[in-house]
Amino acid sequence: MSAPTDRGYHHLVRPQAFLFDRDSTLVHDVPYGGNPDRVRPIPGARRALAAVRAAGGRIAVVTNQHGSAPGGLRPADVVAVHARMERMLGPLPILEFCPHDDVDECTCRKPHPGLLLRAAARLGVPPSECVVIGDAATDVGAALAAGMWSILISAPLSSLSTIGEIGEIGEIGEIEEVGGAPCVAPDLVRAVRLALDGEFGQPVDRGTHGSAGE
């Protein structure tokens, strides 16, 4: 697999590792949700993850959880939620989460690459062989910073597949939201299918269409 470059994405084959955001990607977002009983999978999540496993892909979950900073959730709460997710969605062997808040200026909180690089190291997969799938510009920014591929899940833009198409609309708000993602998918199942099929390595000129959001 060729690595992302400043001028675009090219010659993509199936990635070895799939790094998934958690909230609004695999499960519904519950702010500061540390109660495992409140975990609700996104429709299609179990099927999408099963497809990755069947194809031999390796899986990690990478999530910002500043609620686990002092005064918020405990790290044990995040782990308990993850265990509940595994019972509902199947094995999710690698969990990396950032417990810090924005003011902590850590290097792990997305869009910084720390979480992603730690997950890739634990999986034993080079960053250039990883794809990040998430619903926020911070996921895209972290992927770019880590030298990984990315697919953005963005239902309102479901008819668009590349940054080039988004740029033709001329809506700067939409461009900023998508950031540097080479590909936009309407849902998790489609995002995984694009990655498994190697169909999302579309040319991207980040100088024209903006940089990854924060």
CATH class: Alpha Beta
CATH architecture: 3-Layer(aba) Sandwich
In quaternary terms, these chains amount to: single chain
Distance between the termini: 27 Å
Mean pLDDT: 77
Class per helix and strand makeup = alpha/beta
Number of strands: 6
Give the full name of the CATH homologous superfamily.
HAD superfamily/HAD-like
Main beta sheet: strand number and arrangement? 6 strands, parallel
Order of helices and strands: EHEHEHEHEHHEHH
Gist?
One of its GO terms (cellular component) is cytoplasm. With 214 residues, the chain is an alpha/beta fold.
Polypeptide structure, described:
InterPro entries: HAD-like_sf, HAD-SF_hydro_IA, HAD-SF_hydro_IIIA, HAD_sf, Heptose_bisP_phosphatase, Histidinol-phos. It is found in: Cytoplasm. It is a single chain. The chain has 214 residues and is of the alpha/beta class. It has one domain (17-199): HAD superfamily/HAD-like (Rossmann fold). Helix content is 34%, strand content 13%. It has helices at residues 45-54, 75-89, 114-123, 137-146, 163-169, 172-178, 188-197, 206-209; strands at residues 17-20, 58-64, 94-98, 130-134, 149-153, 184-185. A six-stranded parallel beta sheet has the order 3-2-1-4-5-6, with helices on both faces. Helix 2 (75-89) links the parallel strand 2 and strand 3 (94-98). Helix 1 packs parallel to helix 7. The longest helix is centred in the middle third of the chain and has 15 residues, at 75-89. The protein is globular and about 40 Å long. It starts with 16 loop residues before the first strand and ends in a 5-residue tail after the last helix. Mean pLDDT is 77; it is low at 2-11, 157-179 and 202-214.
